[in-house]
Amino acid sequence: MRLAVVRRLMLLRRAVPAYLRVALLLLAAIAPGTLLASEREVLPATVSPQHYRIELTPDAGSLTYHASVSIDILVHRATHQIVLNSADIVIDSATLAGQRAAPAISYDAKLQTASFTWQRELAAGARTLRLAYHGKIYQQASGLFALDYDTPHGKARALFTQFENADARRFVPCWDEPDRKATFELTATVPADQMALSNMPIASTDALPGDFKRVHFAVTPRMSSYLLFFGLGDFERVHRDVDGVDVGVVVKRGDTASAAYALEAAARILPYYNDYFATPYPLPKLDLIAGPGDSQSFSAMENWGAIFYFERSVLIDARIATESDRQYAYLVIAHEMAHQWFGDLVTMAWWDDLWLNEGFASWMESKVTDHFHPDWNMSLQELGDEQYAMQEDARDGTHPIITPVSDILQASGDFDSITYLKGAAVIRTLESYLGEDAFRAGVRRYMRRYAYANSVTDDLWREMDRGSARPVTQIAHDLTLQAGVPMVSEASLKCQGASSSVSLSQGRYAIDADSTQARLWHVPVMVAIVGGSSASTIVSGSAPVPLELRGCGTLILNSGQTAYFRSRYAPAELTNIAAHYGELSPDDQLGVLNDTSSLAYVGLEPMASLLDLIQNFPAGADPVVATALVGLLADLDRLYDGLPAQAAFRGYAGGILNRIFARIGWDKKPGEPDNTALLRSGLIETLGRFGDASVLTEARRRFDQYLIDVSSLDPATRLTVLHVIAVRADERTWDQLHAMAKSARTEIERQQLYDLLAVPENAALTRRSLELALSGEPPPTVAPDIISTASERHPREALDFAIAHWDRISLMIEPTTQARFVPGLLRGAFDPSLIDKLDAFAQEHIPPDARQDLRKSEANVRYLAQVRQDRLPQINEWLQQPRR
After folding, report:
1. Sign of CA dihedral 122, 223, 2, 428
2. 79-85 sheet: strands from edge to edge
3. Is residue 800 within 8 Å of 767, Cβ to Cβ?
4. Residues with catalytic annotation?
5. What is the DSSP string of 78-99?
6. Distance (Å, whole) CA 75 – CA 601
7. 880: burial class by Cβ within 10 Å (0-12, 13-18, 19+)?
8. Are the CB atoms for 162 and 301 separated by under 8 Å?
9. Residue 884 — very low, low, confident or very high, per pLDDT cuts 50/70/90?
10. Who contacts 132 (Cβ-Cβ below 8 Å, separation ≥6)?
């Protein structure tokens, strides 16, 4: 699953929601990263499923469905009762082969189970449980759900399913746990003029009276219940054969032109993965299925053979697509396709090890994208992900990558930046330490050994260490079983003759002192002299570790930035780095910028050190590094909101950004790198926020022309211009944007414009956008996005609105992720008085075991308030000093 967060490519437009969970203590008597079965809310082990035969008849118009399922089960030991998962389902009848009497049926709404009890004991052996039942079709992405959209002929409705982490039970009574793998055989009775989709190809189709048909799909491989998929609608499919696999992209009728990009990407990625994993993709077909709408919790889902994507994450409309859209779509496609191995073929045994799915898919998406698009420099872009993960990992509410999970609410909270982004960073650390070839060989052994089965993380480390001269288990345990961020400090650097000696020690980078009890990591460190030699070592604990290098010059810790730790330099060396900043590689420029800013924000470095570094920022820096600088200055500017010193800061920051902008300008130049488009967008939007007169004037000129001729704006800058205009909108401009949203040609364009209606600085317009969200005009899956976007500039208004209308808003959010939404509205807030409001809401609406995001959001509010109070005055003082 891909988190519905706008990651590296969109950080300047939207803050990243923090999907975070409470850290649970590892128990010494339990194997690393696990809970005893008795401490988990899981189904009894007396019965296990082997095969499901599901017959489904959906009624999209009434948002209901009727179904039956025959489940071949294995009773492992005699019992009177069979218990399985079921939520929002009414079971009409139940029979068990070999039993004359019908069972008594009882439900547990809290545990989401249905129990079948017989008076006579069931003997061990193979049986078939037959259930007839009916349920509801949701209007948010959980279980079987509907997405409505506009067509030239009026409204249309399509059906899809979303089951991760535990919503298959809303579609079929089942053993809805990842280690209860079985095969699935689906048959659906559907309108004859619609396309039905599932994990496997259609095996047969029978015409039925009344313009219906019965579609029978081939049997799936053994897989977890959360990977089952069903879709239905007025679809079209474009496809091609790739290494013997029928690869297709499924879209709403009329959207096939927007599918070409995804099909080409998938056709290139599949052979790469076949080779990397040395295990060919095992299903006969692979569909990438695009649905209109959105979700607050995910952007795509890796259903085996039938990957679901929201349209904005997979379709590329050449008329409006930006470079950011193209890169983001490629990454999401690559992420979900990686899951076909990491997650689908080999599945974690329980949600403790979710990172085996998500961390690896996040790492793999960048690896394959770097292979096919080296010009995008994803290995550099992903340092932005690592920076975000480290900031989360240093605050209250963080958790180990491998965290004991007792129930599905806690599991839902683990879909967060620690699991995804820190997970990917740790894999990058281990690959760099072990070597690319040796690491890949370990992955291949792991795939072969656990195919169609379940595993835990230590299974992977065993395969990595098999026959290895550089075992990774100790390093991996330190980074995955402990929360927190290691910090490697330079204690001393001396140059004598033709060599340098440096002493290193390991500590901890922390924003909140009690965020973790971890103090000791084994950290692989690569140290280099800029333009010279390098050396590596393992640093663990505070005892100094000496290291010798040939030559003298500027020293860089974590050379290449491949390992997960913060680097702290002695004051003299940091001054030297600032003086020679332009000589560093782009990786090291970005790493030094990230480390220095983070350490300065918490007071481990003076803010002057960061500002001196920025003063030496090279005008021709790599676009990715320059984009990071734009984001840093934009974030600081937000902290100045409402302060009289903001004008002085904007004068300083605007001067830096205008020097970069003068070099690249408004429009693409022949031969410029693709990433320059991302930098251009960030510069224009940030300078617009600063109130730069020339940027605002040019944006208005282009917008006025766009109102006359929509083709006048190049797709590369269209959304950027609209964003600048929306931020400074008055009522007339807001009305113009609203009219554009209502008349948009595509669902993707409509979503973009609804989102823009929530970005104005004018609080009165924000209130209009909030009311619009609940007016019934935007689709139910899009409305929460409007509220979330409004919170970026007006968190108090958005929080008050969400609290006042929670009964309505909660119905638009998936049940297992409702606890995240309101805390997420404060993700960029710095007013501590909002914490009391949030706490009061939580007491009434957020269960105690689902308050992971509450802790994280409140910690972030306190952190930003502290930076605003303690660090901005240091900037003001620095700005008042004379500069040459």
Report:
1. positive
2. 79-85, 113-122, 104-108
3. no
4. 336
5. -EEEEEEE-SSEEEEEEEETT-
6. 59
7. exposed
8. yes
9. low
10. 66, 67, 68, 91, 92, 93, 94
What percentage of the chain's residues is helix, strand, coil (to nearest 5)?
45, 25, 35
580, amino acid identity: H
pLDDT band at 296 (very low <50, low <70, confident <90, very high): confident
Contact present, 229 and 221 (Cβ < 8 Å): no
Neighbouring residues of 368: CB distance < 8 A, sequence distance ≥ 6: 269, 272, 273, 276, 334, 338
Query: Average pLDDT for residues 829-841, to the nearest whole number?
Result: 97
Rg over CA atoms, the chain:
27
Alpha helices per DSSP H over 640-714: 646-664, 675-690, 693-708
Phi-psi bin for 332: left (phi > 0), alpha (psi -120 to 50), beta? Answer: alpha
What is residue 556's three-state secondary structure? strand
β-strands 64-75, 555-556 pairing: unpaired
d(CA 717, CA 719): 6
Convert the pLDDT of each residue in 711-768 to its tens digit: 999 999 999 999 999 999 999 999 999 999 999 999 999 999 999 999 999 999 999 9
Helix (H) or strand (E) holding 206: strand 202-208
Residue 140: how many other CB atoms lie within 10 Å: 24
Prior bond of 165 cis (ω within 30°): yes
Q: What is the pLDDT of residue 14?
A: 31
Mean pLDDT computed over every residue of the chain:
94
Check residue 4 and give its pLDDT. Answer: 58
Residues 6+ apart with CB under 8 A from 559: 526, 527, 528, 534, 588
SS3 (DSSP) at 9: coil
Q: Is residue 28 scored above 90 in pLDDT?
A: no
> For residue 864, how many C-alpha atoms fall within 13 Å in the half-sphere facing its CB?
23
pLDDT band at 32 (very low <50, low <70, confident <90, very high): very low
pTM score, whole prediction = 0.95
Compute the distance between CA of residue 784 and CA of residue 801 in angstroms, rounded to an integer: 11
Q: Is the peptide bond before 85 cis (omega within 30 degrees of 0)?
A: no
Whole-angstrom Cα distance, residue 56 to residue 134? 9
Which of 623, 599, 648, 602 minimizes the C-alpha distance to 613? 599
Dihedral sign, CA of 372, 374, 379, 382? negative
d(CA 468, CA 383): 28
Instruction: Return the half-sphere exposure (C-beta side, CA atoms, 13 A cut-off) of residue 757.
Output: 30
Backbone angles phi, psi at 492, to 5 degrees: -160, 150
Specify the amino acid at residue 634: A
The token duo for 459 is: 């299974």
Q: Where are the alpha helices (DSSP H) in 533-585?
A: 571-579
Has residue 408 got a pLDDT over 90? no
Residue 9 is predicted with a pLDDT of 36
